[in-house]
Every structure is written in structure tokens, then in C-alpha cells.
Specification:
Mean pLDDT: 94
CATH superfamily of the largest domain: FAD/NAD(P)-binding domain
Bound molecules: flavin-adenine dinucleotide
Oligomer: single chain
Shape: globular
CATH topology of the largest domain: FAD/NAD(P)-binding domain
Strand order of the largest sheet: 7-6-15-16-17-14-18
Strand content: 15-25%
Helix content: 25-40%
Length: 467
């Protein structure tokens, strides 16, 4: 087995979106980075997407992209989404706006496109070398030695590095090594629902409709909430939509992937629950057959750091996708680490710096993990519920009355950089107040808005002013 010491300042595992951004940000600070990535180079070889072709980027992610000078490049290839576009079972629709106005929106973008852009900019610094098809199989954290396998030849190599950062995703090998070394722990909670991705095609040339070549309004996140399950769709710039069906994995009282075993059952399921969607995807049964069922896991691990070795992104804190924050949270890890790196003049003490980073981030990533699970229930179930809609209407009134100082939980998470833990706590106060003032009411006219305002002034605003 070949053995060597890396000549780079930092060895990084995984060139996904977080690893590529991190490599770029470190290189911009004069550090050299050797990256080990198990996949082939996606800019050269077409790689099956495996999971979500597009994803939503919001304020935290954009802030990190601005830090490396790429926010405008990225935004040029996105589709803005201004709200949730709800499709009821009877075919009626309604738009629930996300923000206060159109300036507050999320953006749908290609995961692969973003990843490729970040890798190219990282390499262009001349300080980042990405070694593809190199899979981490073991790590000795006492000596900071990585064991890597070349996926083509099967040859093994041992590489020692002064600093090791792990961005190798939710099934992180570095995390397993770190936890084994420290006696730490990870809880891995698998969601009982899984997902399949389907593509809704663009309209054929000559058949352009209300939304040009898009079969649905492109500037919203479409949701077909159905209680225990749901379908969502996000537009791509080429006129297609990436649609994700979230459904229980195991047979039970509700429809599940376990029952959708043949084309007839699949088509009958879509006709029954999504009659306005089914005709838009001509090869629905074939797509469904071919798409793998993805699983979703929340990983809460600790510690993230031992000496000059640390975890970031999904490797440290994988979350379920329902707040659209997984990558945004990983990008925020990079922002926070760079803030610490930039702060103290003098020599960089990596172990202490990484410990500070982890202590700062952990309460916030735990908070977004819980918020993401809660948002699953909100999206699949509550958005269709009149009580939920009444509470949103009260929130809109509070926003008007309080001159912009009121921010809903969704807005705090998505359109601000307030710590996730603050959003979680503020959300609990809001939920309590809204439940109190809406109890027994069905219309906005019945709600005592003065009382709602005074409760928010007394309980929420002082908290937000001091956190
Ligand atoms: C269905 C779905 C929808 C989502 N939607 C959104 C969204 O709208 N907004 C959002 O912000 N987030 C979203 N996410 C979450 C987002 O995808 C992740 O948070 C993000 O990809 C994490 O980036 P990462 O770089 O940490 O990990 P990953 O993207 O998993 O990248 C890890 C990299 O490490 C490599 N690797 C893994 N193991 C090894 C090894 N042993 N050796 C070498 N290399 C290795 C992998 O090949 C990969 O390139 C979604 C997730 C899912 C599943």
C-alpha cells in the first residue's frame, strides 16, 4: 500500500455542494486543499442524479455564495418561487405567499449545476486539487491518516494530513471513524416515509400555454397535500418540473410504496389522488417503475471534532428535506467557520477553532433538524387545514400592524440569518399565541387582533430583540 503525507494544508473528504464550497472558501484564504471524492467528475461523466435533481436555495445559502463571489452567477440559473401553490383534491388551487413581498422568495436550482460551478471555481484558484474516484474507507484519527481506495484500480493509499475536514454526506465514513475514536454517539432517525422523483415534461413546441412552455405556474412550489402523504413539484429553467412523491414506505391505513407494485396500481393511485397531475406526465407508470425509493434520515451526532479533524454539512447533521434547508444549513456551516477563521489575527489553532465552530453550530443544526420534521406535517397535512390557513391570515395582519417587526417561523428560517435555535423558540411562542387567539374561531373577522398584537408585543418581540 502506498503511504504519503499530503502536501496540502487541509485534506477534505467529499466534493458535494458543501465540500466544494468549503474548498473554495479555504482556498480564497490562501490555504491549499486536497479533496477526495468517491464519484467520477460530474462535469465529464453523466452521473445518475440519485436524489433531488433540483433544490431550493434561500437566504443562508445565498449569503455563503455571496461570500465566495458566486451569488449572481448562481441566481442567473434559478427559477424564483414566491409561495406554496396548493392543489386540493377537488382541483381547486391557491397560492400561499412565502414572504412579505416578491423580494422574499426561494430559488429552485440544479443541484448538479451548482455543485459543478463550485468545483470549477475551487479548482480555478490553483489551490484546490480534487481527486475523483477516491473513496475513504477508514481513518486513524490518532495519526490523522486516511485510508482511500481507488474506485477504478482497487489500489489502496494511506494519506496523512495536518487538518482533515469531512463533508462526505449523511452516511459519512469519517463520522463513523470519529465517533469510534471518541466514544461519541449518533442517533439516526429514519422517516417512515420515503420518496420517488418524477419529471413533469415541458410543453411541446407550439403548445405553449398560460405559463409559456411550463405546464404549471413555474414561480411557486407546488404541493398536493393529502394528509399522510404529498406530492411536490419545483420548476427547472428548461421548462420541466422535478416532482417528488412522499409516501409511507410500509403498508398501513394510508397508501404506501409497498402497495404500488404494478403499473395499474400506480396509475389508479395517481388518478385517485392527483387527477390534475396525472395527465401532465405521459410516461408516469414507466417513470415510477424506474425511479428508486429514497429514504430520509435525521442524523444527530456528537462530537463533530477531534483535534484538527471535523465534520461539516450532512456528515455532521443530515436532516429531512421539508424545510428546504439541508444544503443551506451546510453552507451556513461554511460561513460560520470562515467567520471564525477570519477573526483572530495570528496563528490558526485548528483544534480550538474547530471546537468553537462545533459548539456554536450544534444547537442550531439540532433546531433545524426538528423544524424540518415538523414541516413535513405542515406541508403534507396542515396547509390544507382551515385552522392553519386562519393562523396564516392572522400572521399577515400582525405583519401589517407591527410594521415589519413580526416575522413568521418560516420567514425567520428562510429569509433571515437568525440562528435556527432562535427561529425554533420564536416559532413556539407564535404557535402558542396563534392557538390562543384562534381557538373556536373560523374567520379572521372573529379573531381579536388587538389581543393577538398585545400578546406578540409582550412575548415575541422582546425575545427577538435580545436574541
Ligand atoms: C429529496 C431531497 C430534497 C432536498 N431538497 C433540498 C432543498 O430544497 N434545499 C436544501 O438546502 N437542501 C435540500 N436537500 C438536502 C441537501 O441535498 C443536502 O443537505 C446537501 O446535499 C448536503 O451537502 P453535503 O455536501 O454535505 O453532502 P452530499 O451532497 O451528500 O455530498 C457528499 C459528497 O461526499 C462524497 N462521498 C461520500 N462518501 C464518501 C467517501 N467515503 N469517500 C469519498 N467521498 C465520499 C459523495 O460522493 C458526495 O459527493 C434535499 C435532500 C433530499 C434528499
Amino acid at each position: 500500500m502506498r503511504e504519503r503525507t499530503s502536501t496540502a494544508d487541509i485534506a477534505l473528504i467529499g466534493a458535494g455542494p458543501v465540500g466544494s464550497l468549503l474548498a473554495l472558501a479555504l482556498a480564497q484564504r490562501g490555504l491549499s486543499v486536497e479533496v477526495f471524492e468517491r464519484r467520477p467528475d460530474m462535469r465529464v461523466h453523466a452521473i445518475a442524479a440519485g436524489r433531488s435533481i433540483n433544490l431550493a436555495v434561500s437566504t443562508r445559502g445565498l449569503h455563503a455564495l455571496r461570500m465566495v463571489g458566486l451569488d449572481a452567477d448562481v441566481l442567473a440559473h434559478t427559477v424564483p418561487m414566491y409561495g406554496r401553490f396548493l392543489h386540493a383534491p377537488d382541483g381547486t388551487t391557491r397560492l400561499l405567499r412565502y414572504g412579505r413581498d416578491d423580494s422574499e422568495h426561494i430559488s429552485s436550482m440544479s443541484r448538479g449545476g451548482l455543485n459543478a460551478l463550485l468545483m470549477s471555481h475551487a479548482e480555478a484558484t490553483g489551490r484546490v486539487k480534487i481527486r475523483f474516484r477516491q473513496r475513504l474507507v477508514a481513518a486513524d484519527l490518532a495519526t490523522q491518516t486516511l485510508t482511500l481506495v481507488d474506485e477504478d484500480s482497487g489500489a489502496q493509499e494511506r494519506v496523512t494530513a495536518p487538518v482533515i475536514l469531512g463533508t462526505d454526506g449523511s452516511a459519512s465514513v469519517l463520522r463513523a471513524a470519529l465517533l469510534a475514536h471518541t466514544g461519541g454517539q449518533a442517533s439516526e432517525a429514519l422517516l417512515s416515509a420515503g420518496y420517488k422523483e418524477l419529471t413533469l415534461p415541458a410543453l411541446p413546441p407550439g403548445e405553449h400555454g398560460l405559463h409559456r412552455y411550463f405546464a404549471l405556474l413555474p414561480t411557486a412550489l407546488h404541493i398536493w397535500p393529502r394528509g399522510r402523504f404529498m406530492l411536490i413539484a419545483l420548476a427547472n429553467p428548461d421548462g420541466t418540473f422535478t416532482c417528488t412523491l412522499f409516501l409511507p414506505l410500509a403498508a398501513g391505513p394510508d397508501p404506501s410504496f409497498a402497495e404500488l407494485t404494478d403499473d395499474a396500481a400506480v396509475l389508479a393511485f395517481f388518478q385517485r389522488w392527483f387527477p390534475d397531475f396525472a395527465p401532465l406526465v405521459p410516461d408516469l407508470a414507466a417513470q415510477f417503475r424506474q425511479a428508486p425509493v429514497g429514504q430520509m434520515v435525521t442524523v444527530k451526532a456528537w462530537p463533530w471534532v477531534v483535534g484538527p479533524v471535523a465534520l461539516l454539512g450532512d456528515a455532521a447533521h443530515a436532516i429531512v428535506p421539508f424545510f428546504g434547508q439541508g444544503m443551506n444549513a451546510g453552507f451556513e456551516d461554511v460561513t460560520e467557520l470562515m467567520t471564525l477563521l477570519d477573526a483572530p489575527p495570528g496563528p490558526r489553532e485548528w483544534p480550538a477553532l474547530l471546537q468553537r465552530f462545533a459548539a456554536l453550530r450544534k444547537p442550531n443544526t439540532d433546531a433545524i433538524a426538528d423544524l424540518a420534521v415538523e414541516n413535513f406535517v405542515e406541508m403534507r397535512d396542515k396547509v390544507a387545514d382551515p385552522a392553519f390557513l386562519l393562523q396564516r391570515a392572522v400572521e399577515a395582519e400582525l405583519d401589517k400592524r407591527l410594521g415589519g417587526t413580526y416575522r413568521s417561523r418560516y420567514q425567520l428560517v428562510t429569509f433571515t440569518r437568525r440562528p435556527y435555535a432562535v427561529a425554533l423558540h420564536a416559532g413556539a411562542i407564535q404557535a402558542d399565541v396563534l392557538t390562543q387567539v384562534c381557538a373556536g374561531k373560523t374567520t379572521l373577522a372573529e379573531v381579536d387582533l388587538d389581543r393577538a398584537e398585545s400578546l406578540i408585543r409582550a412575548r415575541l418581540l422582546p425575545y427577538l430583540a435580545t436574541h
